[in-house]
Amino acid sequence: MLGMCRGRRKFLAASLALLFVPALTWLYLSAANFTVKPLPLSPLETQSSTLVGGAGERQALELRVREVEEENRALRRELSQPPRNPTNRNYRINNHHGNQSQPHSTEEGTGDSEAQKSFSTGNSSTCVQHPVVDKCENIHVAIVCAGYNASRDVVTLVKSVLFHRRNPLHFHFITDSIAQQILASLFHTWMVPAVRVDFYDADELKSEVSWIPNKHYSGIYGLMKLVLTKTLPSDLQKVIVLDTDITFATDIAELWAVFHKFRGQQVLGLVENQSDWYLGNLWKNHRPWPALGRGFNTGVILLLLDRLRKLRWEQMWRLTAERELMSMLSTSLADQDIFNAVIKQNPFLVHQLPCFWNVQLSDHTRSEKCYRDVSDLKVIHWNSPKKLRVKNKHVEFFRNLYLTFLEYDGNLLRRELFGCPSETDHNSENVESKCLKNPVHLQLQKTLLELDEDDPCYEFRRERFTVHRTHLYFLHYEYQPSADQTDVTLVAQLSMDRLQMLEAICKHWEGPISLALYLSDAEAQQFLRYAQGSEVLMSRSNVGYHIVYKEGQFYPVNLLRNVAMRQVSTPYMFLSDIDFLPMYGLYEYLRKSVVQLDMTITKKALVVPAFETLRYRLSYPKSKAELLSQLDMGTLFTFRYHVWTKGHAPTNFAKWRTATTPYRVQWEADFEPYVMVRRDSPEYDRRFVGFGWNKVAHIMELDAQEYEFLVLPNAFMIHMPHAPSFDITKFRSNKQYRVCLKTLKEEFQQNMSRRYGFAALKYMTANNSG
Prior knowledge:
The protein is of the alpha/beta class. The strands form 4 sheets. The protein has a 9-stranded mixed sheet with strand order 11-14-13-12-15-21-17-22-20. Helix 4 (147-164) runs parallel beside helix 5 and helix 10 crosses helix 11 (335-345). The protein is elongated.
């Protein structure tokens, strides 16, 4: 069948060629009478207004006619030969599925005639050929990632890979403890099907490369790609290695397919360096490490691990590095210098990849020679410390491509890979490589299926089990624990419309802060620009910003609080809201109260009395006396006294006015004060979303666990005015919203009764209005 298909194609091609030659000859004879305008090749390329006519056109056409005639003669010779053996080592004929066979990933634009010949196929479905990369073949990707910034940058790379991919992926991250915490949480909550993630401790590898002096901005982590043969599993045969500043513009399976082009002892797939760095002519006395020609860039590497191990790669690169360091003293481009020195001595090791597999956007790049059209682009590498600010005549196009993935909704990448017998869905460390679903995700799916979609409150119930993609520590964070074990973290949550409160809170609270921000991918980048442009926020390194990405129709207020609480590293936490400004000095006052009230051995919730102002411009009181004065003048009010008195009435503001020592208050229905508690206190109940009962239920839980509520006599916080939230508007205007909230309250109270028995009966009989 294959021979018949080839015979038909050859006969058709020969016929077309025979018809084409006379037509082209006629065009040649009459060419002098026409002026031809060029077609636009690319949005990246400046067009010429006209082509040179006359003699230049005749010469070009004569050349083209000779080329076509030569191709025609070659085709006749091929037709006269007997059919070749249909076996092709690069492709398989899949006769098991017929026309129902699934599409396979293909390698395109490899820069040689072999690929183009391989991909020419007929129209008949029986002649469909498949490349070496099966649709369900796992593709392994290794990335070195360390620190807060790199953990944020690598997400854009991962998005670009996931966007184009059609194969299961297995990411191998070599990370420090910071990046592992961030990425493990991100992938666990991302829940992308057919993606597995494993982590390898970079700190354990430091001794392998710490002896190499390195001037590159990547530091010691920029040398760790040298030890991947030792780090990755011994049964892993090949892997694609990527820098974090890479953006994919095609399916990564096309790059994976290049492995089949390796010949002989080739073990490294690399793209030539696209600057003159290794030529040594960038500036006077520039002395780079030895390299083969222009050298090779290591932002994208194809590693045949099994062959490298047989070649004793570890010994090879170490001996080379030791010898070169005797004269070079240090590396300038980290692992890239050592890779190139090894290749200089052993050129047979490298398989040169076409340059579009690593289009390098450094200051001195010659990358524009790699592409003529957008379709040529495969991988973009922002390999300059300037990143998106690098100078390049096409940088706007590349920047827009990068920004597309930067702001792309990552939730849309949770798509299944259909047609595979089983899918990898592991997002945990050091788990066996089995194609099974994550048990947590399976239980979640089962729970969701058990919900009644006809229930009027279905959306409320579903939100409780929705897994929101979460990126912890979106910005750099530093915290040094206090020796006296009295430290307190302020905990709050917010959305995009409350960003303006951040600077004010940082001025009022000098201690550590843990914030959960509910944002879309695009809003997260807006927040990043806002924070990086704020001197106040950039001067604070003890503020943890945790992004919870938007999904669903409700504001998951209690989930956000829980996310922020889980990242508290101090012994105590002050549970606040973003609209409140704590009094100046509250941080130190709470720390002293920890000692005075012996909070280490008793369950106490220290109540900070809440007030509010209706004025956007407020002269913030510097003491309790000033606050009482403004309270008497009507500038301040007790919080929500006019719309929700019960929420803070048990605080007993009349007693607080004259109190000089902490005093105990009893729980009452609908009590929702702002409190400081120990870090191990219970979390908020996730069933309450949007507006209503989210704090009330938490305070009820504290009371059920026998926490003692103590009001602090010299502490206060003030609520600043703002426009009504979308959720409170829904609560007021939507009857079904209020009905569902009442149903959830009753279910919560019943759960409390079952959990705490007779002591919880008071919650069943309490007034549930509001």
